[in-house]
Amino acid sequence: TQLLEQSPQFLSIQEGENLTVYCNSSSVFSSLQWYRQEPGEGPVLLVTVVTGGEVKKLKRLTFQFGDARKDSSLHITAAQPGDTGLYLCAGAGNNDMRFGAGTRLTVKP
Amino acid sequence: DAGVIQSPRHEVTEMGQEVTLRCKPISGHDYLFWYRQTMMRGLELLIYFNNNVPIDDSGMPEDRFSAKMPNASFSTLKIQPSEPRDSAVYFCASSSHQPASSYEQYFGPGTRLTVT
């Protein structure tokens, strides 16, 4: 089992602030996904990273895959209340995919 | 596409009763996953299918849980008999591994199960 650790577990910030959340593992992944889940809904895919060192941007969100493909980070610039939700990372490898426990983000107006 | 469809959205049942959750994956997706989510344990993979065949059921809690996929467009997760500790949100997800490295999953809205 490939264990994914996400940090911080909870994060509460004011609108306009920047933040970074992390997803770490001792295992190498063939790909890694980030999802956002809002209350009462299923997780929604944000991005997939495949190549070590890869950086992808989605508006104010920047995703980075570690060079060794064991970890990833998500940086949000100028957070907005609409960014509130549970951010989950999921790593794939060896015909297996596992989710981290998530970071629960609250952005206060 | 309509996305992954799950039914019912909410289920309240008494301990000991049989519960059947249903899922219709996205057309053309050849992988189907069942997850359970609770505050305490987060998102747990229960079982997944590839081309209607169960590949890994190591996450199924115990014999009270069973899952079937009789065809490419339908799957069920059954709990018999249900217990209060089974209360959770159950998600179905599907994916297509083309390109093979993606493993991107698309989730349904979930079924919130409450066992009293």
What is the gyration radius of chain A calculated from CA atoms?
A: 13 Å
Give the H and E element order of chain B: EEEEEEEEEEE
Count the DSSP helices of chain B. 0
Mean pLDDT of chain A: 92
Bin the strand percentage of chain A.
Answer: over 45%
Low-confidence stretches of chain B: none
Largest interface: A-B, 23 and 18 residues
User: What's the pLDDT, averaged over the residues of chain B?
Assistant: 92
Query: How much helicity do the residues of chain A have?
Result: under 10%
Tell me the helix content of chain B: under 10%
Map the helices and strands.
The complex is a heterodimer of chains A (109) and B (116).
Chain A: E1 5-7, E2 10-14, E3 19-24, E4 31-37, E5 44-49, E6 55-58, E7 61-65, E8 71-76, E9 85-93, E10 96-99, E11 103-108
Parallel strand pairs in A: 2-11
Antiparallel strand pairs in A: 1-3, 3-8, 4-5, 4-9, 6-7, 7-8, 9-10, 9-11
Chain B: E1 5-7, E2 10-13, E3 19-24, E4 31-38, E5 42-50, E6 53-56, E7 65-71, E8 74-79, E9 88-95, E10 106-107, E11 111-115
Parallel strand pairs in B: 2-11
Antiparallel strand pairs in B: 1-3, 3-8, 4-5, 4-9, 5-6, 7-8, 9-10, 9-11
Features:
heterodimer; A: 109 residues; mainly beta; five-stranded antiparallel sheet; 11 strands; 0% helix; B: 116 residues; four-stranded antiparallel sheet; globular
